[in-house]
Design brief:
16 strands; 38% helix; 19% strand
Length: 368
């Protein structure tokens, strides 16, 4: 089918949120609001598609990049193949950097185009991606903030269990804080730890050995820089805990490098960063070929969240769904994204299944 782009708009939102009793930070900066950059695409036949470009602590930059670099290239374009179209755009703009905010913007555009194409075909996105897929309950996990406080960690772990989650992920970087979580939840609840790339090899090996006693499902992104796959493989070879990574990988090519280096047990592509659904589908094929487990990265609250649910439904219904454990002031999708006994599922509506709430957009839209 053909999509002719009639109009496109980047819509920046800032929705205040809290983590309970600390000031949230992202990238070392205070982070008082969820920064959601919506990409709205309207086709010539009147169908509207919605996407989301990753923009935490970088929203103004992503907004400018989309409007000045990408929008002029895509207005009034006719698209017969979304993957081919996105590859063309990547090639045109490669001189300005293959990754970072440009790829975040491509990701949002790609998601919006798939939303339109699925609506044209009158299919939910997961059916458009895999006609044999069936709607199912997807097991979620509470992705806790980094509290660096044993009492708060215990409180949030127990609160997560009370809210129906059966899996918990920490963002802590000390043995003391991991121990606090394990003591709170007991030995039977699966526990993961995402460290966000803090260590060199020697430090990671030392702490990784100490964390083995807590029976982690995986240790996530222990090495800086995240694309140092050789060192990640070296660490994986010398500790017992499985390694997960991928949220900071861009396009299929960095995943090729990671897989060829045998760096991980779990790969974690992020649909709002990696290049959208087009790149995600390529990664799916790579994962199947190499018999790797996929655990998508998805601490999102806009169309990127819905796209992740559809991708998991289509290809990995046994994968766990990451839900960032914060308290947002408003939701673009009201109660439809609230976990039910720790599980999530897609709707049967066409495309992503839900369009964002226009009142929330009006209230939380910001101007640059």
């Amino acid at each position: 089918m053909t999509i002719k782009i009639n109009n496109v708009e980047a819509i920046p939102l800032k929705i205040p949120f809290s983590i309970g009793n600390k000031i949230p930070k992202s990238g070392g900066l205070e982070w008082p609001a969820l920064e959601i950059l919506l990409i709205k695409v309207e086709s010539s036949d009147g169908i509207v598609g919605w996407g989301e470009a990753f923009s935490y602590s970088s929203q103004h930059t992503a907004f400018a990049a989309f409007n000045t670099m990408i929008k002029p290239l895509i207005m009034k374009r006719e698209i017969t193949s979304i993957p081919n179209f996105l590859r063309e755009l990547q090639q045109i703009l490669h001189l300005f950097g293959r990754y970072g905010v440009v790829m975040h913007c491509f990701s949002g555009l790609d998601i919006a185009l798939y939303d339109i194409e699925s609506k044209q075909k009158k299919l939910p996105l997961h059916k458009h991606l895999n006609l044999n897929s069936e709607k199912s309950k997807l097991e979620g996990y509470a992705s806790l903030y980094r509290y660096a406080d044993c009492d708060i960690i215990k409180e949030k772990c127990l609160e997560s269990l009370k809210n129906g989650y059966k899996f918990i992920k920490l963002h802590e970087i000390t043995e003391e804080h991991v121990r606090a979580a394990r003591e709170a939840i007991g030995e039977k609840i699966p526990l993961m730890v995402d460290t966000n790339c803090p260590w060199d090899y020697d430090t990671a090996l030392d702490i990784g050995k100490k964390l083995e006693q807590y029976n982690l499902l995986w240790l996530e992104e222990p090495i800086f820089p995240p694309e140092d796959f050789e060192t990640l493989f070296k660490l994986r070879s010398n500790i017992k805990t499985p390694i997960a990574a991928g949220e900071n990988c861009y396009t299929i090519y960095q995943f090729y490098q990671m897989v060829n280096n045998k760096a991980v047990d779990y790969i974690q592509p992020s649909v709002t960063k990696v290049g959208g659904i087009s790149e995600f589908v390529k990664i799916k094929k790579l994962a199947i070929k190499n018999e790797l487990k996929v655990m998508p990265h998805s601490p999102y609250f806009g169309p990127g969240w819905l796209a992740t649910l559809h991708l998991i439904t289509a290809f990995w219904p046994s994968a766990l769904v990451e839900r960032l454990y914060v308290y947002e002031e408003a939701s673009l999708y009201k109660d439809s994204v609230v976990p039910k006994n720790g599980t999530f599922s897609v709707t049967d509506n066409f495309g992503l299944g839900l369009d964002p709430n226009q009142d929330v957009i009006k209230t939380y839209k910001v101007k640059y």
